[in-house]
């Protein structure tokens, strides 16, 4: 039985790897059939961006005002266009001249290259002078190019994106905002200006991805001050940051490094959210290169094309596959852990620390196989997450020790409403009325089939309550850290797993004892079981993060209740365990609530973005 379970776990890990790899591997992502406009692309970071985009197969349009540099740039980049298969178009235009000029040039580019799908506002100037030394003409030039240039290009491009239901808007600015030497005021004013302005696109309903690639976080700041941070996340915005360098950015080698960093971060930000930068080949992206392009349509006065059913189906299959792997691997690790507890005499926290160590090793292997890129963050930032995990493990075990099984199960059920309460109170996450209603039969059903022999004791109640709060905070903080740190499941778990293993060590020495084996066979069985459990833990931990990242903490709780029901039903069907009438009613109630929850969530998912937009025709972002 142990060998069969181990083989099943290995198969599940392989399946999880192949589900994650196409999602996180940047080498599999290309930009064929996309049209990327880069302003200020004749030199520096803009030219390096265009070079990398052409290598990935994108059709690139460069807008720049210096004709001589533009001609030299076109000659240099032509070979990359041939190498990647994309088309290169260079247009001489001053993005700050007037909106009509910019609009006409972008329309020309869309006729020849197809509708714009990615706009990179890279054009900008910077005069490093103190306030009294900066002339009014220099103030005006910085404001026109750095701010109005972004306004003109974005306004001329955004309707094409809205019409085809797809768009990426990237703002590139200088790292001079990090230097407070009194010489950056005019530049900072222009940069903060476009950041404050375009954050409103998200807050007021623009369903496009908007990024800043610089030091300032104005988009996020405005969202938090307005109390609409949740809507920022619904709009899938991100802030891309590049590391500062000691040399000046004007040097070509640093431009290449920062451009590569920008493209990789942009691609990884898309990948970790489950969005592929590939544009599906359709009539609008192929025929429009030779035919006359249709005029852009504002969504405030016209209808919308519905989201492709195949795209919705693929996304749902992907989520269901990830959730299924989480359920199967969790059930497998439960049986393995029961075997280890009964035959190998290893305690709970010791086994948990070993499993987190195996998870860390598995993530190091994944890092070497380039399934994700390590993102540097402060350990202090991830420490609360690791502490909440350890609190959950320690106090849940104490609850099991000092409470009856019925009381222990009752407090575990309370995790679901506590998660909802924490998400609503601290993170302003609101669930629809129908979602809340579906939770009622789930909670009642789980209590009916799992909760028996309830006896409350003061110490047992205290430790169980702390365990519930720790577990709920752990789940909510996973979701929050993934968004705040802009990391994917592997990147965040890469920090949390080893931290949790280290933090558990003092509790292990104080509260548990180590097993002793008399024969070699016992040692061999224990080693095999622990290795199998460690591999299963890797699949469970990674899939937990993946499920929370791609669904929500509440959905993960519903999956947890599904596991409980599956174990009860599996025990009845496979091991002929007894199942009384009360448990049967509880299982049916739980299943009814779970299916209702799934139906409601899928219905809400299908409303994004087309039904939600059409339900708010008064919203006008252009």
Description of the molecule:
- The protein is mainly alpha-helical and 622 residues long.
- The chain folds into 2 domains: 34-288, 3-Layer(aba) Sandwich (Rossmann fold); 312-608, no CATH class.
- The chain has 22 helices and 7 strands.
- It has helices at 2-24, 44-55, 67-84, 99-113, 136-163, 185-203, 218-226, 229-234, 252-272, 283-286, 309-344, 348-368, 379-402, 405-413, 415-427, 433-450, 458-484, 489-511, 520-550, 553-574, 581-606, 610-614, and strands spanning 35-39, 59-64, 88-92, 118-121, 168-172, 209-213, 238-240.
- Strands 3-2-1-4-5-6-7 form a 7-stranded parallel sheet, with helices on both faces.
- Strand 4, helix 5 and strand 5 form a beta-alpha-beta unit.
- It starts with a helix and ends in an 8-residue tail after the last helix.
- 44% of the residues are buried.
């Amino acid at each position: 039985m142990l060998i069969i379970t181990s083989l099943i776990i290995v198969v599940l890990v392989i399946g999880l790897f192949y589900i994650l790899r196409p999602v996180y591997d940047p080498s599999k992502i290309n930009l064929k059939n996309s049209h990327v406009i880069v302003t200020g692309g004749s030199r520096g970071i803009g030219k390096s961006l265009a070079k990398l985009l052409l290598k990935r197969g994108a059709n690139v349009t460069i807008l720049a005002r210096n004709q001589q540099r533009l001609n030299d740039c076109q000659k240099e980049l032509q070979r990359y266009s041939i190498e990647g298969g994309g088309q290169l178009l260079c247009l001489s235009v001053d993005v700050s001249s007037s909106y009509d000029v910019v609009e006409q040039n972008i329309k020309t580019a869309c006729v020849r290259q197809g509708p714009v799908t990615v706009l990179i506002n890279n054009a900008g100037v910077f005069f490093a002078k103190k306030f009294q030394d900066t002339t009014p003409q220099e103030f005006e030039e910085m404001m026109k190019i750095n701010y109005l240039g972004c306004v003109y290009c974005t306004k001329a491009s955004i309707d094409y994106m809205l019409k085809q239901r797809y768009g990426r808007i990237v703002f590139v600015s200088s790292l001079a905002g990090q230097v407070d030497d009194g010489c950056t005021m005019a530049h900072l004013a222009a940069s903060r200006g476009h950041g404050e302005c375009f954050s409103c696109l998200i807050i007021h309903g623009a369903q496009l991805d908007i990024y800043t690639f610089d030091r300032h976080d104005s988009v996020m700041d405005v969202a938090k001050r307005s109390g609409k941070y949740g809507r920022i996340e619904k709009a899938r915005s991100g802030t891309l940051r590049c590391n500062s360098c000691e040399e000046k950015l004007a040097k070509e080698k640093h431009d290449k490094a920062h451009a590569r960093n920008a493209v990789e971060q942009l691609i990884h930000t898309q990948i970790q959210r489950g969005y592929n930068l590939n544009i599906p080949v359709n009539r609008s992206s192929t025929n429009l290169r030779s035919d006359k392009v249709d005029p852009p349509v504002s969504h405030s006065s016209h209808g919308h094309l519905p989201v492709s059913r195949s795209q919705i189906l693929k996304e749902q299959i992907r989520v269901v596959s990830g959730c299924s792997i989480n359920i199967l691997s969790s059930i497998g690790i439960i049986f393995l852990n029961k075997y280890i507890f009964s035959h190998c005499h290893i305690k709970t926290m010791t086994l948990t620390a070993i499993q987190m160590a195996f998870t860390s090793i598995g993530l190091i292997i994944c890092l070497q196989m380039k399934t994700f890129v390590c993102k540097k963050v402060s350990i202090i930032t991830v420490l609360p997450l690791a502490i909440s995990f350890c609190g959950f493990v320690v106090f849940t075990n104490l609850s099991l020790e000092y409470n009856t099984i019925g009381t222990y199960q009752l407090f575990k059920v309370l995790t679901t409403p506590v998660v909802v309460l924490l998400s609503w109170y601290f993170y302003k996450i609101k669930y629809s009325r129908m979602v809340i209603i579906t939770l009622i039969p789930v909670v009642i059903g789980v209590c009916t089939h799992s909760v028996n022999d309830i006896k409350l004791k003061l110490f047992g109640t205290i430790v169980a309550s702390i365990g519930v709060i720790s577990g709920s905070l752990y789940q909510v903080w996973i979701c929050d850290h993934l968004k705040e740190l802009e990391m994917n499941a592997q990147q965040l778990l890469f920090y949390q797993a080893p931290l949790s293993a280290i933090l558990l060590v003092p509790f292990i020495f104080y509260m548990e004892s180590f097993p002793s084996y008399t024969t070699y066979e016992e040692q061999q069985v224990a080693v095999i079981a622990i290795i199998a459990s460690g591999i299963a833990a890797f699949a469970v931990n990674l899939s937990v993060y993946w499920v929370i990242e791609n669904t929500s903490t509440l959905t993960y709780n519903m999956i947890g209740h599904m596991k409980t029901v599956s174990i009860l039903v599996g025990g009845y069907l496979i091991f002929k365990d007894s199942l009384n009438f009360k448990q049967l009613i509880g299982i049916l109630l739980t299943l009814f609530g779970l299916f209702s929850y799934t139906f409601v969530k899928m219905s809400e998912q299908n409303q994004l973005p087309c039904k939600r937009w059409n339900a708010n025709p008064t919203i006008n972002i252009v």
